[in-house]
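Support reply, case 0932

Customer input (verbatim):
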Amino acid sequence: MKAEDLSFLVHWRKGIPSEKCSLTGEHERRGGDGAGPFLERSLTYTWGENKISLITRRYRDGCRIWLENDLPPGFSHRTAEFALQPPPARKILCFYNTFEGQKILPTSPKEFRFMLSMVLSNLSYALRRPRSFFRYLLSHGSPDAGYGAWSYPKLIDGWEELPPHCFLAVADADPPLVLLAPAAFGQKCGLVWREGLKCEAWGFDRTKRYPKIPGPILAWGEARHSLGRVFELLSVEKPWIRERGRENPLTGLGWCSWNAFYTDLSYEKILDSIRTLREAGVQLDFVIIDDGWGRYRSRMLASLEPRLDLAGLVRELKELGVRKVGLWHALQGYWMGVDCERELSTEGTDGRRIPTREFFEKWYGRMKEWGIDFVKVDNQYDLVSSFRDLTPVEEAADRLLGWIYGASRRRLFILNCMAMVPECLVNFRTPLCRASFDYPPDSKDLQKKQLLACFYNSLWLSQICVPDFDMFESSGRFALTHAQARVLSGGPAYVTDEPRRANVGLLRRLCLDDGTLAGVDFPALLCGDSVFQDPYSTPVPLKVFSRVGETGIIGVFNLHKGGRRERVSVEAGDAELRGEYLLYAVERKIFGRRLEFELGELEGEIVVVSPLKRGISVIGVEELLVPPAGVRGRRIRRTGTLLVYSEEERKIRFSNQSFRLSPSLNRVRVASEAGDF
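Our regenerated output:
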């Protein structure tokens, strides 16, 4: 695709009719930036005494578009509208912000108690601050604030089917085209269909001038490459997108208190949970103390001091071998803001009091004194209602997330949550981000949707950070499927079991002898034939791939909404590998050059694609969910049974011992301290 093939038309914001703007100048220049060499074209229009310039910066495989102007403050929250004429597409995979998948009704007694306490807390806030509560309802009820915190995928047949609040689209065209509606220059964009495809820019602050207005970012070529390319082009304006890195700081198995106890936390419950896991032989790398540890009043943070003895709790957890302890809090301090340290907070448009930089500096300093290593910052998307007509939305996200990063720097690292909206995605500074809505323990249908969202969102999220698939219950009915997804995610893996309910055997399959997660080298990506399929609505398996060194790893999952059994065919090409390989299905323990089997409802399987060299294929340690992770750099990293395939009878030497291999799949008992293979 050539840049000249793309057609753009700009509709000025409300109150400035495009037919009254006249073209008065045209300029071209060549240059280069962090995204490569470009040809930039500028078209300048006049409207009365004001000037408006449409800038199109074209690269070899992508394009950035924006406006520059000297217009006065606007008449509406929408700042501009770009009309696009994309090429025809066979299918379009789009991602939109929503609360789809979020549970509304409780399905267990402890969940009912939590939801009841939440309703009563909201009622208490309404009675305590009726004017603020009324402003909060008005602000959250407005149509332009109705988007959700999470990204969810949707496969459509044409652009006219775009869902609301769409920010990213991958078109199966010739060649594939990726469209990103970015957040930049204080504003956020969205893709809409309104008498044609349009990219709208919104600032949510009518009191400010917007000298620059963001437009769409495009890239063309192979879909996965183009998804990375649009964010690379955006990083010219937001350099921390590439600076924050993609290294997972949580490298072992973790535990989170949320589904185990909700907000009904105590020192003893947390300590008992970790102690029982440790006594069962499960080594935990990190613990997340979720909502419920602080002092709250009417859903507001009432004090910087914790309700629990966190210093003592952290000390005892680390004596049990836990290396990192994390603490949860909302971006606003708590869900309805803060009711303490008044001089260190500011009132938002919706009546909530929002923490300032000084608040976070003081709070995070206390957390470090308690021994906390990282924080999980929740509810990040909820910015528009607090800053409407006070600060442009993307600028507010930049400022607030910048405050958190500044306060945490050299002290704590951050796990970002409810942050899958454009203004947050481009402004958080650390590499960990939740990839979907909360793990739903009691809903089979929502578990399918959650796994679907995790893997499809990882297609683009893994280009800019480390995806976090959220916690899961190892005692749940589909725990094996969730465990398989976590070791393929390339991110953290953590459970949320109550004491003495954990599936210890399953948890041991997740880790090496040193406690490190036995996972893959990079977040699993959709196989080529899965990108433009809908595994939830149609009976086709979801198929992803990754690597462990030279070995391919393929994950297949049955997420069909109707629960039908699905026939699966797997070959080395699914992992984008060519040559001589042996395939081994971990749970079914079958092997061959090509595998076929069936998957039941919400069942998964991991297939190892192992190189076959001189008639030998080393598959890995049988006891692990990802066997090759137990053999790295020709060293054994997990005590267990080494799987070795040989085409003929022969001898091998391992740690001064000789073993005879038969012409089939062989099992050799090994220990991690035994040495080289």
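We compared this against your earlier run and they match. Two observations from our side: The CA atoms of residues 128 and 257 lie 30 Å apart. The first strand starts at residue 7 and ends at 12. Please reopen the case if you see a mismatch on your end.
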